[in-house]
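cron nightly-structures :: item 1 of 1
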Amino acid sequence: MLLDSQFWLKVFSGTALQVTARKPRLYLHHLIILVTLKYQIRDLSKRHLNSMLWLKALHIISFVCWFAGLFYLPRLFVYHSLAEDSISRERFETMERKLYQGIMTPSMIATLVFGIWMLSIAWPAYKQSGWLHAKLLLVILLIGYHHMCKAYMRQFTQKRNIKSHIFYRWFNEVPVLLLIVIVILAVVKPF
């Protein structure tokens, strides 16, 4: 009787009293199970929601740190390309290396871990969302941009940079555009 869909349809439609007037014990038994399940599901959904909120907070914190590095490293490239003395060049190389290895890469990894974790929990709800697929494509482009920064950093370290400060000024605008589109997709969810 617990899995009888007709019974539950009548329970939820309010006609259960007519059906169960013949079997009051059965109705009481089902009512106890229903109330117990309701509280267990509500407790489970509260814990699930709470864990999703924590994951979302950690995801946001890590992507803010990642973008801080993505905004600052190309700006360092601008000044590095203008530097003429070896002391300044060495200082920029140290700053770039520490920024990339100490802030950007760990923040990128944390962003991806928390984002994938959230997706794994709620994938059935998100798999049909077009905005999410577009956002994931932009995140892949952002990862590529992150690795391009590493390549340019390596060129500076090996004294093989041939790009001007003007190139790096324009290169610095790419993460701004990606951030704007990613935030609009995640918040507005246009499609």
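cron nightly-structures :: done
Residues 14-20 have pLDDT under 50 and may be disordered.
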